[in-house]
Fold this sequence. Notes:
Blueprint: H1 6-18, E1 27-31, E2 40-43, H2 44-62, H3 68-90, H4 97-128
Antiparallel strand pairs: 1-2
Amino acid sequence: MFPKMIVPIIIYALVAFIAGTGAMSSVLFTIPMMSTPDGWGLTTGDLLLVFGLIVLFIEFMQSSGTGSTTIVNHALSMIVFVIALALFLLVGRFATSTFFILMVMTLIDVMAGFVVTIVASRRDLAVGDGGA
Length: 132
């Protein structure tokens, strides 16, 4: 019942307020590449987005239920999106591309959750109809 997309949002908030938004663009490590002499650098923001995608995948896997806990989870996910949208629009530290992409992930979580639940409940109704 816990909306897991709040975890990347909280991590972003902690990094943004403790280390500043510049920490999101700091390179954590570099991987040597044949194509570029400097290699490919993975930033904190990149790593947070990858983590957000993993969490979003987990949310997709759990959104196929039709019970009351699933509905509550979708409602809480909507609240997470609204909070993320408000932070993006009103707080300067959250007006970054990294946070915008995280916010879009929360919106996708909400939309996909409702769509998957509606489709799953329609199937349940069709199966439970009894051929009447």
